[in-house]
Amino acid sequence: MTDRAGTYAQDSDLIDPEAVSAAYYDLIPDVSDPAQKVVFGTSGHRGSSLDAAFNEAHIAAITQAIVEYRAGQGITGPLFIGRDTHILSGPAERTALEVLAGNGVTVLADAEGGYVPTPVVSHAILVYNNDPANDDQADGIVVTPSHNPPRDGGFKYNPPHGGRPTAMRRRGSPLARTRSSPAATSR
Question: Is the pLDDT score of 175 beyond 60?
């Protein structure tokens, strides 16, 4: 799309926000379809609710895996969360907050319920973890598909070092297990 940089959106670029939001809740991922399973890319899971590749079941399972990962790693500090303006970011953030609250995780989010630029979550984690007054470690979730199209959603976990969660892709990690979990299916 670089040849279209700086130009107006075309009709083919536009989405139906209500359809994208409804699909997040209404479409159930098919566990036998690899395109509908959770798969972590460079720093998270991305997909479209319209393809049953980014739905409530995915986010609930990923968030539960993050809770289990935190427990296994002894991460007991707050979890910072932020979302961007993509249509699926709001529903995904709400799902994550429900799972985190259900597990008793302390969550720090924008006080006004607003959008949070992606680097702010990493910065908040690093500031918290480098403060000698804190005797625990924080981590975070960024709800964004980054540069992906408007129909996509994205969900990224930032461990206490504030960067990509490469160690969590190891076999045996709760996040690695979401790839085959029946409740967590996407691409």
Answer: no
